[in-house]
């Protein structure tokens, strides 16, 4: 196993509250509200060939996520976009992962947090595919999660909020201990929802089916892949999908900024064969974000 390089102890620069600071100095106090109460929102972005894919769309979602959590980011969309580019340039990065994050600070401790200051930071680092390419082309194995995505009446499900990922980490770890790459999460009604950090799609008789994003994040990659599929002439149905339907699908794949497009070979006892549609959309997505490379075999 490769040696882990801790994220707090690296060379480079992080943009924090309006300026670039040395990586190791980009710190927050132990009594920061976000650490205790989850009052933070973030984005995950990828840069290919020096360009961050759908940067402004990510930035707009970051600001909207903060608004949903009822705090305001003072920087404009243009200023945050530029901060992301500045971080890449300062760290001499071309192909990388970019992580903007906004959070409530340490001015006030307790549930009430009106007096806290909003902070914003952007970091970037080299990060390859979430799943190794050889694994992606064969299809990853997914288990079943125990925790479910919550009712939108009980949590701000349309925000990319840090606290909503607590159960995702638990389920990701549980899946990996069982030999799986990820876990399929249901929603509070018992319907198929998503994986721990990616949206999910299925194929049956040439038609693509995906859960309606009514209680989990409608991913930017999800929307991109739906558009690519429709451009190819595929029918895409966004609908309620029940777990007992899994046996009726022939193909399955997941999408996300980190996962990109990754075929699935099994979900628990249900088997799938990565086929033409999964491979076509994987190639189409990689051709869109990285025009000079095709990562899937023709």
Question: Topology of this protein?
Answer:
Elements: E1 13-16, E2 19-22, H1 33-37, E3 40-42, E4 45-48, E5 51-52, H2 55-68, H3 77-90, E6 96-104, E7 118-125, H4 133-138, E8 140-144, H5 166-177, E9 182-186, E10 192-195, E11 199-204, E12 207-211, H6 220-231, E13 236-239, E14 251-256, E15 260-267, E16 270-271, H7 276-289
Parallel strand pairs: 8-9, 8-15, 12-13
Antiparallel strand pairs: 1-2, 1-7, 3-6, 4-5, 4-6, 6-7, 9-10, 11-12, 11-14, 14-15, 15-16
Helix pairs in contact: 2-3
Describe the structure.
This protein has 298 residues and is α+β, with helices and mostly antiparallel strands. The protein has helices at 33-37, 55-68, 77-90, 133-138, 166-177, 220-231, 276-289, and strands at 13-16, 19-22, 40-42, 45-48, 51-52, 96-104, 118-125, 140-144, 182-186, 192-195, 199-204, 207-211, 236-239, 251-256, 260-267, 270-271. It has 2 domains: 13-125, D-amino Acid Aminotransferase, Chain A, domain 1, CATH 3.30.470.10; 133-289, D-amino Acid Aminotransferase, Chain A, domain 2 (Alpha-Beta Barrel). A hairpin with a 2-residue loop joins strand 15 (260-267) and strand 16 (270-271). The two termini are 31 Å apart. Mean pLDDT is 94; it is low at 294-298.
């Amino acid at each position: 196993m490769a040696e882990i390089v801790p994220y707090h102890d690296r060379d480079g620069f992080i943009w924090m509250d309006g300026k670039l600071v040395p990586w190791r100095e980009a710190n927050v106090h132990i009594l920061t509200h976000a650490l205790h109460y989850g009052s933070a929102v973030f984005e995950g972005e990828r840069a290919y060939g020096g360009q961050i894919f759908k940067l402004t769309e990510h930035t707009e979602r970051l600001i909207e996520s903060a608004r949903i959590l009822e705090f305001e980011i003072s920087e404009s969309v243009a200023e945050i976009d530029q901060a992301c580019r500045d971080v890449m340039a300062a760290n001499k990065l071309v192909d990388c992962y970019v992580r903007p994050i906004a959070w409530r600070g340490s001015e006030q401790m307790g549930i009430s947090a009106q007096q806290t200051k909003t902070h914003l930071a952007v970091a970037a680092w080299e990060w390859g595919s979430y799943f190794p390419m050889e694994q992606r082309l064969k299809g990853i194995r997914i288990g079943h999660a125990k925790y479910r995505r919550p009712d939108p009446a009980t949590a701000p499900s349309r925000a990319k909020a840090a606290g909503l990922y607590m159960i995702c980490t638990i389920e990701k770890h549980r899946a990996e201990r069982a030999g799986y790459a990820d876990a399929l999460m249901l929603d509070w009604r018992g319907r198929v929802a998503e994986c721990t950090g990616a949206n999910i799609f299925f194929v049956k008789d040439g038609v693509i089916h995906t859960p309606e994003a009514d209680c989990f994040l409608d991913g930017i990659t999800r929307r991109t892949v739906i558009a690519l599929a429709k451009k190819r002439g595929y029918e895409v149905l966004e609908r309620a999908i029940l777990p007992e339907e899994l046996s009726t699908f022939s193909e399955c794949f997941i999408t996300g900024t980190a996962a990109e497009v990754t075929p699935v070979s099994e979900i628990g006892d249900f088997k799938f064969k990565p086929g033409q549609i999964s491979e076509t959309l994987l190639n189409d997505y990689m051709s869109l974000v990285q025009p000079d490379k095709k990562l899937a075999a023709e």
